[in-house]
């Protein structure tokens, strides 16, 4: 988003970019709009274990960093799919259209997975994360894989681990 010439955006478009392309600039615009402290306080109150102490891609200053665990993220992720309203449907659609398909949902096309995939990915130096919902008919799996590594070989292993976990979950859903 930071290199596009458009200067006016609807909140809906910003949320779609944040969720559908994992755009950190879009996420930071939302944090600026609503107030990072307000968002951080809301997360602390509603989903303990999720800490937002800096904007995305900003350097860590005085130890202020963002933290999450899979156990802390899972309730927030599942709540997004448990609510039935216009906002959650919009967010689900953006997650369904996520452009980054190289981790948990990597094998969906190869396996001819006929269900729905929803995912939100993130990466930094030495970090690859992915959170996905794989759904076929009334059965689904929610999966969060957070990896930290050093070096190219471990990076490749982290990506393969995520791809293999997603493949196994999809194969399970496809079994009759």
Précis, in short:
By secondary structure, the protein is an alpha+beta fold.
The assigned structural class equals alpha+beta
Q: How many helical stretches?
A: 6
- Secondary-structure element sequence? HHHHHEEEH
For the CA atoms, what is the radius of gyration? Answer: 17 Å
Unreliable runs:
none
Overall description:
- It contains six helices and three strands, in the order αααααβββα.
- A hairpin with a 2-residue loop joins strand 2 (127-136) and strand 3.
- Strands 1-2-3 form a three-stranded antiparallel β-sheet, sandwiched between helices.
- Helices cover 45% and strands 16% of the residues.
- With 176 residues, it is an alpha+beta fold.
Which terms summarize this structure?
alpha+beta; 6 helices; 3-stranded antiparallel beta sheet; 176 residues; single chain
List the helices and strands and how they pair.
Layout: H1 11-20, H2 24-34, H3 36-46, H4 70-82, H5 86-96, E1 116-124, E2 127-136, E3 139-148, H6 151-174
Antiparallel strand pairs: 1-2, 2-3
Helix pairs in contact: 1-2, 1-5, 2-3
């Amino acid at each position: 988003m930071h290199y596009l010439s458009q200067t006016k955006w609807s909140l809906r478009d910003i949320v779609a970019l944040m969720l559908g392309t994992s755009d950190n600039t879009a996420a930071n615009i939302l944090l600026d709009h609503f107030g990072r402290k307000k968002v951080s306080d809301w997360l602390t109150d509603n989903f303990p274990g999720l800490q937002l102490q800096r904007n995305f891609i900003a350097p860590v200053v005085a130890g202020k960093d963002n933290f999450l665990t899979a156990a802390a993220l899972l309730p927030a992720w599942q709540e997004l799919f448990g609510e039935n309203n216009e906002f959650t449907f919009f967010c689900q659609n953006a997650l369904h259209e996520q452009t980054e398909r190289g981790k948990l949902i990597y094998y969906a096309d190869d396996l001819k997975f006929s269900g729905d995939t929803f995912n939100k990915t993130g990466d930094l130096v030495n970090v690859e994360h992915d959170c996905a919902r794989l759904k076929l008919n009334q059965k689904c799996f929610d999966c969060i894989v957070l990896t930290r590594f050093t070096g190219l070989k471990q990076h490749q292993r982290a990506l393969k681990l995520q791809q293999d976990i997603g493949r196994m979950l999809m194969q399970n859903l496809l079994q009759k």
